[in-house]
Design brief:
- With about 220 residues, the chain is an alpha+beta fold.
- It is built from 4 helices and 7 strands; from the N terminus they run βββααββααββ.
- A 4-stranded antiparallel β-sheet has the order 4-5-6-7, with no helix packed on it.
- The longest helix has 18 residues.
């Protein structure tokens, strides 16, 4: 059955991505059915050269009729926003001990919590740290190196705990005063989840590659609440 297109990125838009030599397009697709060992969609990636791509299909192949709608992304455009983030579960305990007093002081002064408001950015993103909800599970490459986080495909762009910082800048005016009890005509649900995904219990799929290897070996992980 045809794979479901999930994400397409161009080197012009995200030059930080470690594109293999001779490529400038990254395409992410997945099989939307449950796959072991995590009972999640199974992603695949394609590194391509834009100049070699012929005319686009006039229409996409229809997904299997038994595919859950929440595993087929709604068509939407990306508007990349660069942010600075810091590790949560991946933060060494020795470092956390050094900044624990500062974390408490910042929360007392501002109400911002390190783990939800200041550390790992939520939502679909490139680079940075996985937003683990379970213990970290970084894959290793056959070459012996630990793979790098390439990108995350998340169920939604922010959650109630992340509302202080991770709402996209252009959406903040429309989100003013939002809450889970907001009227039905409030746009928060569309802004929070424009792709219409739900992976497990608000989980995420994390894609990893080894940029030390020319052929970019690929692995993935999935977790949820």
């Amino acid at each position: 059955m045809p794979l479901v297109p999930v994400l397409q990125l161009f080197a012009d838009d995200v030059p930080e991505l470690p594109f293999p030599a001779g490529t400038d397009v990254l395409q992410v697709l997945w099989c939307p059915f449950d796959h072991e060992p995590w009972s999640s969609p199974r992603p695949q990636i394609r590194w391509r050269r834009r100049a070699d791509i012929a005319a686009c299909r006039p229409g996409m192949p229809a997904p299997d009729s038994e595919t859950e709608a929440e595993r087929i992304p709604n068509p939407c455009l990306l508007d990349p926003e660069r942010v600075v983030e810091y590790p949560t579960y991946d933060l060494p305990e020795a470092v956390r001990a050094q900044i624990r007093d500062t974390i408490r002081q910042v929360e007392q002064d501002t109400g911002w919590q390190y783990d939800t408001d200041l550390a790992v950015a939520s939502g679909t993103k490139v680079g940075g740290y996985p937003g683990w909800t379970q213990p970290p599970d970084w894959p290793g490459c056959p070459c012996g190196a630990t793979m790098q986080h390439l990108l995350t495909v998340a169920s939604w762009e922010f959650s109630r705990g992340d509302e202080k910082r991770w709402i996209p800048v252009q959406d903040r005016p429309a989100m003013a005063g939002w809450g889970f009890n907001s009227p039905g005509d409030h746009p928060w649900r569309t802004i929070q989840n424009p792709a219409g995904l739900m992976l497990g219990d608000a989980g995420g799929i994390y894609l990893f590659i080894c940029s030390d290897c020319p052929d970019r070996p690929f692995e993935y992980r999935f977790d949820c609440s």
